[in-house]
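Subgroup meeting minutes
Present: P.N., E.W., G.H.
Scribe: E.W.

1. P.N. recapped why we're keeping a running log of single-chain structure predictions: easier to compare across weeks, and new members can see raw inputs and outputs side by side.
2. G.H. added today's entry (164 aa).
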Amino acid sequence: MIVGILSDTHGKADMATAAVQLLIVRGCEYLIHCGDVGGERVLDALAGHPAMFVFGNNDWDRDELARYAKTLGIACGDNHGKMTLGGKLAIVTHGDDGRFVNQVLMDQRVDYLFLGHSHVPMDRRQGKVRVINPGALYRAAEKTVAVLDTETDRLEFLVVRQPS
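Output recorded in log:
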């Protein structure tokens, strides 16, 4: 399965739309937003595609975002979501809860841990768990997303250009 991962849009719907378009062109079958969505217009960018998001530390109106996502058919993982992607188990969280992240890494029960929060792209392994941060679409020198092929375990970071 080809998975598109984005994070930290902070309400920048134009960047979210550009990112989603890029991910879809790259063949992504499922989209994951790792938190700090920042508003309904960002969820609009995910609409029409199989997608899930989690809340970040800057997502204030959580009940409204969850309700709106449901009307769009987008899964809300609350503070952390668990899913199977191409036969691989994954957890999505924003990354601001260090205890939760550490527990996932100690448990070693998932193949992937997707997170955001730092606004810095990252790809590292801790034991069997591959930790992936796609970077950010707001307050980052280079706005990035990630594409993961769960069959080959290949990861690629993509730069998203500011829409004109």
